[in-house]
């Protein structure tokens, strides 16, 4: 008979069924559409379509995201301790699917009141609802891979499948949406309403598919019942999480990197129209190229990481992203299509490496912590990680909104009318210089990350041995 250690080793080498990876990964389509559809359009929509001053629009987007300070830890610890025959996480996927789709539709069907502050207040309410819905789905969803497998490289494989669906969802949010807006009239509020309702349907279908197809996924039991109050439990769990040096290093990398990405994303549609003199159809070609590049490089980068390590793969992706950002400083009005497409191909490499490696490293950290402490904290870890992602998504539009206001951007004009001068400088600052600077900071922080496969295997072996000793003592 195999020993417990041998049985554990066999289990860790088993690959998950492709059908399960596809099913779980499909939820990323809806999440990517939900996130990128809002982040890529929200500043332009609120400032130029709803006619809210750019600084106020950026401030409202930022304040609505602050609700995640409360909701992220609550949902994270709640999903850690939730008990259900369907697992701890899957019920949240059901609730988040419905509320997420509704929230997306509400945002882009927002009315424009005569008083811009009333419009801003309405946007704040629906964006707050959106933030809560996104949290309910995404935190439990992103916690699932840590439960689904113990295999070091299988975690990268899972997220490579997810990366494909992220690419497809981002494709719809960037290329698809831009083509529709260009065809219907990109300055017409009714066009955004059509996009909002149509995307909401796609979000609902995708996220529900992930709910149904993960019924067979392995899930672990939550922490034992505690006599502490709910608030005390949240504080206790997050004190444990934030004391993890590997995790603090990883979220430092993600904060710096994503702050650049989100700043660029908030300004990108303006930059294409204002500075490059291009329409949304060219922006759609850019998005299509990014999607193709991402799908091609996802499996290649996983193989690269298996040979050279996750940290080195992350270095490559982050470096590519810096050079990509700086390349926009060389662009000018009427930039040739070939150079735009080439940049998009490099974005695919950077985006894939950053997302896949970061999430694979996160699941490594979660499992290492569980092996060391004997407590499963997937939700708590993912909640803090997700909050950093969403915080940068709030700060990015805030930076761009104030930059445009400071540059004298006139939001009463149609946004496809070039304003030049300081506006172009503010946009270049947002899509090139600032992202490159933040990328360098991310690489510097990453240099201190040192959680390896060998360390994980040692922790797992020690945990198995301790469990065996405890069983013998009890018997």
Amount of helix: over 70%
**Form type:** globular
Which sequence of SSEs, written as H and E, runs from N to C?
HHHHHHHHHHHHHHHHH
| Average pLDDT score | 85
Write out the CATH superfamily name: MFS general substrate transporter like domains
Please count the beta strands (DSSP E, at least 2 residues each). Answer: 0
Which residues sit in consecutive blocks of at least 5 with pLDDT less than 50? 1-12
Give the strand content: under 5%
Termini distance?
Answer: 20 Å
Structural class: mainly alpha
Largest sheet: none
CATH class: Mainly Alpha
In the CATH hierarchy, the architecture is Up-down Bundle
Quaternary organization: single chain
Summarize the entry for a quick read.
The protein has helices at 4-13, 18-39, 42-49, 54-65, 68-81, 90-108, 116-148, 152-184, 189-213, 230-242, 245-275, 280-308, 310-327, 337-373, 378-407, 422-446, 453-474. It has 475 residues and is mostly helical.
Written account of the structure:
- The protein has 475 residues and is mostly helical.
- The chain has a single domain, classed as Up-down Bundle (Growth Hormone, Chain: A).
- 80% of the residues lie in helices and 0% in strands.
- The chain contains 17 helices and no strands.
- It is globular and about 75 Å long.
- The model is unreliable at 1-12 (pLDDT under 50).
């Amino acid at each position: 008979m195999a020993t417990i250690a041998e049985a554990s080793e066999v289990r860790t080498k088993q690959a998950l069924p492709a059908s399960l990876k596809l099913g779980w990964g499909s939820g990323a389509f809806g999440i990517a559409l939900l996130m990128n559809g809002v982040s890529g359009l929200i500043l332009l929509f609120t400032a130029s379509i709803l006619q809210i001053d750019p600084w106020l629009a950026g401030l409202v987007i930022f304040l609505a995201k602050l609700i995640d300070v409360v909701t992220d830890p609550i949902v994270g610890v709640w999903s850690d301790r939730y008990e259900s025959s369907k697992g701890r996480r899957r019920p949240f996927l059901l609730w988040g699917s419905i509320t997420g789709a509704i929230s997306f539709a509400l945002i882009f069907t927002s009315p424009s009141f005569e008083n811009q502050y009333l419009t801003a207040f309405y946007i704040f309410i629906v964006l707050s609802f959106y933030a809560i819905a996104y949290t309910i789905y995404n935190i439990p969803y992103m916690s699932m891979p840590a439960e689904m497998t113990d295999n070091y490289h299988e975690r990268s494989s899972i997220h490579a499948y997810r990366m494909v669906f992220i690419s497809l969802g981002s494709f719809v949010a960037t290329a698809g949406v831009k083509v529709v807006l260009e065809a219907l009239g990109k300055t017409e509020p009714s066009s955004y309403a059509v996009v909002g309702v149509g995307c909401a349907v796609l979000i609902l279908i995708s996220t529900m598919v992930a709910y149904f197809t993960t019924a067979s996924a392995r899930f672990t039991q939550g922490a034992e019942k505690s006599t502490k109050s709910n608030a005390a439990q949240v504080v206790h769990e997050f004190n444990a999480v934030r004391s993890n040096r590997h995790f603090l290093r990883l979220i430092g990398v993600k904060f710096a990197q994503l702050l650049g990405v989100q700043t660029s994303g908030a300004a990108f549609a303006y930059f294409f129209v204002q500075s490059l003199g291009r329409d949304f159809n060219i922006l759609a070609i850019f998005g299509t190229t990014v999607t193709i590049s991402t799908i091609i490089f996802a499996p290649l980068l996983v193989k690269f990481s298996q040979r050279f390590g996750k940290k080195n793969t992350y270095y490559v992706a982050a470096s590519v992203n810096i050079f990509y950002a700086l390349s926009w400083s060389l662009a000018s009005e009427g930039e040739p299509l070939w150079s735009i497409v080439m940049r998009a191909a490099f974005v695919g490499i950077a985006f894939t490496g950053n997302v896949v490696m970061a999430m694979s490293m996160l699941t490594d950290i979660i499992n290492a912590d569980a092996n060391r402490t004997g407590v499963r904290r997937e939700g708590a870890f993912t909640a803090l990680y997700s909050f950093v992602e969403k915080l940068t998504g709030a700060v990015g539009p805030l930076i761009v909104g104030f930059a445009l206001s400071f540059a004298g951007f006139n939001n009463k004009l149609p946004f496809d009318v070039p304003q030049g001068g300081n506006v172009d400088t503010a946009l270049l600052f947002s899509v090139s210089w600032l992202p490159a600077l933040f990328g360098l900071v991310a690489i510097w922080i990453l240099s201190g990350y040192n959680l390896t496969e060998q360390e994980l295997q040692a922790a797992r072996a020690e945990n198995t041995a301790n469990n065996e000793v405890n069983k013998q003592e009890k018997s």
